[in-house]
Amino acid sequence: MNDKPDNSDKPDFTGNDAVTNDIDTAQDHAGQKHAAQTAGPAAAAGAPAKADMSDAKPAAAKADAEAKPAKASAMPAAAKADVEAKPAKASAMPAAAKADVSDAMPAPAKPAAAEATPGKGKARRAKGARREKARVRRRWPAVVAGTATLALAAAAVGAGTLFPGANATAQTELVPHLLPVGDAMANCQGPTQLLAGSAEGADPEFSASSSSTKARLDAVVLSSAKGDLPAAAVQSLDGSLSPLFTVSEASAATEATPATVTGEPKMRAKVLRGQDAGAPSALRIAPQGEEVPQGSASVVVAADDGDLSGLAAATCQTPSNELWLSGASTSIGRTAVLSLANSSASPATVSLDLYSGQGPVQTAGGKGLAVAPGAVKQVVLAGLAPDQELLSVHVKSVGGAVSAVIQQSILRGLTPGGIDYLAPVQAPATTLSIPGVRVQAPDVAAKISAQDGYADASTAMVITVPGARDAVVEVKAYGPKGQVALPDGGVFTAAAGTASSMALTGLPEGNYSFSVSSDESVTATVRMVNSTKPGDAVDVAFAPSTARLGGSHLLSLTQDASSTLVFTAPEGSATVRLVPIAGNGELGAAKDIELNQGSTSSIDPRALLGDKTAAVLVSVAGAPTFGSQLLGSKDSADVAVLPIPGTTAGSHSMTIVTGY
């Protein structure tokens, strides 16, 4: 097998995520060409010209081939030399596979004999039929639970070549191949950055950040049930992947197989708090034998002055090959910068599909963007789609997997209008959930949005319809006491191929969650605004649609803002278990939170679990449950949303090419 899979970028398998493996089977049906060419030497010996796979040839074609033997003299020298230099490989094929392949192939073309008509001294050139290589792309989902197993079904040809015929599935066996567990990766944002001048397009220049800007990275890594910690470090994304600081060192007693737990579990954690996030970075966690490592990180950026004042937060992302982002804006005073990070050892080629309020945006500048290994590429979206009040982005990468975040900032005249990081939303679907939306009192919100230039300073849902048909969307709001009515019953029509918004006005003050149902696949995010009073600075935040919570999620609590955990179970009751993790890595006593169907619960983690809590281990039982972490400050308009790690969307693929 000449084409070997490139394992330099090991796939990242995490928790309950589904991993999609792209299997490219390259097959070269060259037997037809070789059969035609080898007929020449056979005729010279006085034998009829027969293809190597004649056993599967129809009887009529076989009789015709015997009736017209090819003469060696009819073969031009160049063709004859080609036959000698390229012997047919069909003889290396097992009989069963040979028959299967020949059944699916037309009869080989017969070499033409020399013309007997006088005046035609030149022989006609023998023509062989060629079959182009067929690449069959299959996507096989693999659910990873501790170990990753990939089953490849193939008919072995020659030295391990994949060559499935028409009936290959009936002739072959499923052969499991154990893929080693790879490092867990999570790409992290750097500080917010102010564009220098009117920079547009890729690789823009930035001005120095405000002196008050603080960017802090928090991380937590969980041990095995026996207490063995994995090796974990934060690496630079400046192209070198050089280590910046160590989170944990591998325990000496780490075993090569999953541990069997007896007695009380000895699980512990390693916590990293308040590290300077002066540039983009990546958290890398090594596996513990066959166990998938578990850890997470987040970045929180706060600034008290300057054009980028406000609070921005981003959960460090597992790299993916496909991502959706929603809610950006490139209209006057709005700046959207897309950051693409590639923490793998393989280059990534990224393409962007853009959707505006008027429809898909046609732009050549969003295709073929190269992101080097261990590096970040930034794109000013106004250079691709200027003056768009709403903009959604579909990110697709080939090669290395990437993370994607949009830095969205607003400037209303000389007054800062807020800043945030737009995290990926769930891929287009007909049902979605958005937890963790903070709504101001209606009278305050009305006064803020009534100011000149503040029309978009209000809570609204952004819906993107990537398909060719309009979508009828129904939105439901869930507050602390249950469902709350929305204007027009929460139903509206979103145009095909566009990004549109629905106002979420009139809701009482509080924390909310939203569910979305549609007759067409859509994406969804909620933009929220917070302010203390008219005339003062306004901050903005975006809550993305998220995946349901699973059996185990780790999240860090920042020291630079207050934290509120928000949970909802739209379809039934559920129980959320919270386990506190102290700064020294000790796990405390678990607390259970009961969720009522169709309501939103808000929990202050430090008030419930203790002031020393630095991180939280979250697990859920019962109905589908969704959650996020709301950040803010009582003394300012600051607001931000941190999706719980493991709930952001994305698909990871690995390409294996086989053949000769």
Topology:
Layout: E1 18-27, H1 31-44, H2 59-67, H3 77-85, H4 95-103, E2 134-143, E3 148-153, E4 156-157, E5 161-162, H5 168-171, E6 174-179, E7 184-188, E8 194-195, E9 201-202, E10 206-207, E11 214-222, E12 232-236, E13 243-248, E14 269-276, E15 281-285, E16 294-303, E17 310-315, E18 322-328, E19 334-342, E20 348-356, E21 359-361, E22 369-371, E23 375-380, E24 391-399, E25 403-412, E26 415-422, E27 429-439, H6 442-449, E28 460-464, E29 471-479, E30 482-484, E31 491-494, E32 499-503, E33 510-531, E34 538-544, E35 553-556, E36 562-568, E37 574-582, E38 591-595, E39 600-603, H7 605-609, E40 613-622, E41 626-632, E42 639-643, E43 653-658
Parallel strand pairs: 1-43
Antiparallel strand pairs: 1-2, 3-6, 4-5, 7-15, 8-10, 9-23, 11-14, 11-16, 12-13, 12-15, 16-17, 18-24, 19-23, 19-25, 20-21, 20-22, 20-24, 25-26, 27-33, 28-32, 28-33, 29-30, 29-31, 29-33, 33-34, 35-40, 36-39, 36-41, 37-38, 37-40, 41-42
Helix pairs in contact: 1-3
Number of helices: 7
The helix content, as a percent range, equals under 10%
* Overall pLDDT score: 78
The separation of the N and C termini measures 6 Å
Please state roughly what percent of the residues sit in beta strands, choosing from under 5%, 5-15%, 15-25%, 25-35%, 35-45% or over 45%.
35-45%
Query: What structural class is derived from the secondary structure elements?
Result: mainly beta
In quaternary terms, these chains amount to single chain
Number of domains: 3
Low-confidence spans: pLDDT under 50, at least 5 residues? Answer: 1-169, 651-660
Which value, in Å, is the CA radius of gyration? 31 Å
Task: Write down how many β-strands occur, each being a DSSP E stretch of 2 or more residues.
Answer: 43
Q: Based on Cα principal axes, name the global outline.
A: globular
* Biggest sheet overview: 8 strands, antiparallel
